Recover the amino acids of this structure.
């Protein structure tokens, strides 16, 4: 049973506390929990500790913001073109030469010109297999006419097997390639020689060489365009690649077989 203090014993019980207050020691009778809490609050802060925490927090916020921004940019660059062309169907955009005339002489004629068959001489110094060489953009790669296009595109350019062969004029030879390539391509200069990264730079009048059976055929680009599909099957050589990483738009270049010893415009 709790004892009810009387005036006499109340002051007797309170005397030590009053005495401590009078002597300037009011914390003597604080509870252990209160004393620990007070002591914790009064601990000295190490020099620079607050600054380090602020800098660390700022760095973390900047890092997270940068990661978020990069993720948004990548998502937009990958998916935005495809979404855009689903709303606005792509239009065919023809490519025009920056300079008039052909590099082989004569006024350039955009229409396909019929010609007599031309068989280049065999040269034992030329490599075996089928090769595509485009001096202007640095392409020099072996063509692969595989049944599975992915197998060819993993390494370089794909020669579509169901169409023409080098030198044929009854059916166009079609070559497709990646523009951006796979990740491992960028570890060195492999992509420069084995992809169509710079195909959009080709203009009417530019030269393309095809080696097959140790013979070299020469083609002249006569037209190009941006669009969804091939529009000119009269060409002797058709090359194409994607415009964006993810979209239906393609870059196309059309070339005709020529005799390099004669004026290509005659």
């Amino acid at each position: 049973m709790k004892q009810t203090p009387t005036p006499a014993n109340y002051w007797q019980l309170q005397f030590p506390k009053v005495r401590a207050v009078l002597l300037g020691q009011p914390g003597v009778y604080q509870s252990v929990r209160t004393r620990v809490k007070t002591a914790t609050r009064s601990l000295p802060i190490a020099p620079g500790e607050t600054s380090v925490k602020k800098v660390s927090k700022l760095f973390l916020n900047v890092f997270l913001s940068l990661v978020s921004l990069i993720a948004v940019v990548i998502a937009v660059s990958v998916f935005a073109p495809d979404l855009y062309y689903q709303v606005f169907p792509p239009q065919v955009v023809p490519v025009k030469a920056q300079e008039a005339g052909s590099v082989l002489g004569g006024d350039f004629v955009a229409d396909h010109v019929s010609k007599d068959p031309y068989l280049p001489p065999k040269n034992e110094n030329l490599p075996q297999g089928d090769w595509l060489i485009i001096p202007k953009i640095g392409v020099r790669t072996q063509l692969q006419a595989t049944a599975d296009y992915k197998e060819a595109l993993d390494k370089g350019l794909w020669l579509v097997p169901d169409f023409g062969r080098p030198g044929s004029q009854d059916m166009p030879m079609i070559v497709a390639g990646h523009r951006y390539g796979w990740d491992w391509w960028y570890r060195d200069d492999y992509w420069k020689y084995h992809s169509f990264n710079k195909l959009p730079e080709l203009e009417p009048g530019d030269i393309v060489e095809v080696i097959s059976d140790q013979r070299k055929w020469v083609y002249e680009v006569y037209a190009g365009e941006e669009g969804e599909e091939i529009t000119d099957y009269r060409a002797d050589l058709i090359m194409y690649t994607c415009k964006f990483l993810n979209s239906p738009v393609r870059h196309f270049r059309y070339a005709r077989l020529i005799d390099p010893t004669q004026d290509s415009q005659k």
Remarks:
- Residues 101-108 have pLDDT under 50 and may be disordered.
